[in-house]
C-alpha cells in the first residue's frame, strides 16, 4: 500500500465552503444530497462524498474520449503527454465507489447516491454492497476489515459492477465473468491522485475483486499503432470490448487519463438495443431506421428478425424493456446469420454486401451528394456539371434567403421526390454541420418522402488529409479572385479584403472527414477528390466512383467530350441572387446581447503560460483537471468595429480559484483597416484562462482583479517593465494572489476578431 495522502483541515474547510456556496447559485450551481450511513450524514456532490469536512469517497476527475475535447485531440496528446502509457480494458457496466468510515462501516456509492432509495427500481449502490459482501465472505474477509483499511489509508476503490443477472448493458458478463472489476484506487484528496495499476491489481487479488486487464506501451507512436490495430476488429485477446482507458503523464508530470472507445461493433450493438426498444414501444417501421445511416441495411434485417422473435416470444417484451435479454436476442440474431457471439465486425461486412446486393422490393434508394470543402474548392462547378449531365437535383445553400436552419435539407428532400439524386451544396467544413445535415435528413424525411424511401449519403471530399493549409489558401484565393463578383455572397472584386477574410475563416475552422467516427461514419460512401484537380477531373472521378459502387445509378458511359462541355457551361454560371452575411437587423433585435468581446489566440496564450507558470500548482491543476477554457476572449462592453488591431498582455494573475491575464487593447480597426474608436467600460480588461472547479465562474476574475487593484496600486504595469517579476498580495477576503509580470517586449496579438455574445 502507498503512504496515505491528506489535505490540510483548512483546505478541506475551504472546499466545503465552496461546495456549500455552489448550492445557492441560481445558474450553474451545485447540488447536494444527504444519505444516512452508519448513523452519519453522508453528503453527495456527484462523484465526491463527504462526512463533515472529510472526504470519504473520491471518484475520478472527468476524462474524455480521443478527439472529444481540445485536450484529447490526437495532435495535443502526442505533444503534451509522456509515457509509459498504461492501458486498462474499459469494462462495460456501472461504476461504483467504495470507501470506509473509522468504525468499520462500508460506504458503497453510485455516481450520485449511496444506500437504499425508494425512488429507484434498480439500485447500483445497494447491489454493489451486496456483491462486495459476498465476494469478501468467499475469501474469509469482512466488509468491516476492508472499511477500516480504506479509512486508515484515506483511499477510495473505484470499480465497475458488471453482472447481466442484475443489469445488462452492451457487452456480456455472466457466470465467472460477473462481479466488481477494480480499475482504480484514488487518494481522498481535493486534487486527483491515483494508484498505479500494478498496485491496483495487487489489491484486487488480495481482496477478491475482479482484475481489470492492463499493460503498457512505451511511446505514443506504439500506443496509436496498437489502438488502430484493435479498432480493426473491435476485440482484444479474442474478446469484444468497449475500448481502453489510457493513463499517462502530461508534460508537467501530473496524472492524465483519456479514453479510446471502439466505434464498432460496440456502436452497432448499441443501435440494436435502441432500435429494439423503439420497436417494442410501438414506433412505426418507417421511422425505426430514419436516424441510422450506413448501418441501415443490417438494421433492417435485424428488425425483421426481432419482429418474428417477439411475435413468437411475447413474454420477452417487458423483460427486454427492463434491460434483460439484450445480449441473448443479439446472439440469436448472430446465430441466424451463421456467426458466433464475437463476430460483430462481420456484421459490418454483411451490411456492406447487403447495400450492394439486397433487393428491397419495398425500398427505393435516393442519393444525397454532400460536399466537404472550403470556399473556392470547386464544389459548385462540379455539382453544376453533374446536374447538366444527368438532370439531378441541385440545392445551393447560397441561394436560400430564408434563415430557417431547415430550409436546405427540406428543399433537398423535395427535390428527391422527383429526382433520384440531389447535391446538397454547402461547404460542410465542420463536423457539427455534417451532424446537423444527418439529423435533419432523418428528421424531415418522414414528412417529405414516401415511407419506403431509403437515403444513401455520399461525401464528396475535396480536401485530402494532410493538406497544406497555406497551399489551400493560395489556390482557392486565386480562384475566388478570378471569379470576381460572380458569387451570391463573396464579392471579391467589390470587397477583396472581406473575401479573403471569409476564406481564411473557413480554412481555420475546417475539420477533415473522419470516417471511423461520428458523424462522418454515417456516410455510406466517401469519394476522395483533390481541390488542386481540374473540375473535369473531379467530375470524372465522381462518375467513376458512383458507377463502381452503384452500377444502376449511371447506366450509360459518359464521354470526355460531354464532361468537358458540362464543365465549360458550369464555369459560365452567373448567380441571379445576392446573399449577405449575418442575420438581419430584425432577427438580431430579438436577441439580448450578453457581452461584447475580442477572441484571442488560444495556442499562443497556453504557450506563454507554460513558459512563465511552469509547475505552478494552480496552472498544473487547471491542466490536469481539464479546467483550461477551450476558447479565450477579452470582455469589453460595446462593439462598433470588426477587429482589435493590437492586444497586449502585461501580467499573469493567479489565485487558488482561477488564473487570468491582465491585458491592454489598442488601435481598433474597421473591416477596411481604418482606425476607429470602441468604448470600453469593463474596469480591468482581462482573459480568464480557467477556474479550479465548475462552481467558480469565469466572472470571478473581475472580482479578483478589482480586489487586487484596490490593494495593489501597481497592477497596471507600464512598458518599462516591473521591478519585481513575481509579486504577491493578500486581498480583502484573505486570498493570496500571485502576479507574474511579463518581461518587455510583452506578448502581443494582432488583428484579433471582435464578436457579440447573445443570450
Automatic annotation (TrEMBL):
Domain T4 RNA ligase 1-like N-terminal: 45-267
GO biological process, alphabetically ordered: tRNA splicing, via endonucleolytic cleavage and ligation
Protein name stated in the entry: tRNA ligase
Annotated tRNA ligase kinase domain residues: 368-531
Secretion signal span: none
Coiled-coil residue windows: none
tRNA ligase phosphodiesterase domain segment(s): 539-651, 658-708
Origin: domain of life: Eukaryota
UniProt cross-references to Pfam families, sorted A to Z: RNA_lig_T4_1, tRNA_lig_CPD, tRNA_lig_kinase
GO molecular function terms listed in the Swiss-Prot or TrEMBL record: ATP binding; RNA ligase (ATP) activity
InterPro entries linked: P-loop_NTPase, T4-Rnl1-like_N, tRNA_lig_kin_fungi, tRNA_lig_PDEase
A GO cellular component entry from the record: nucleus
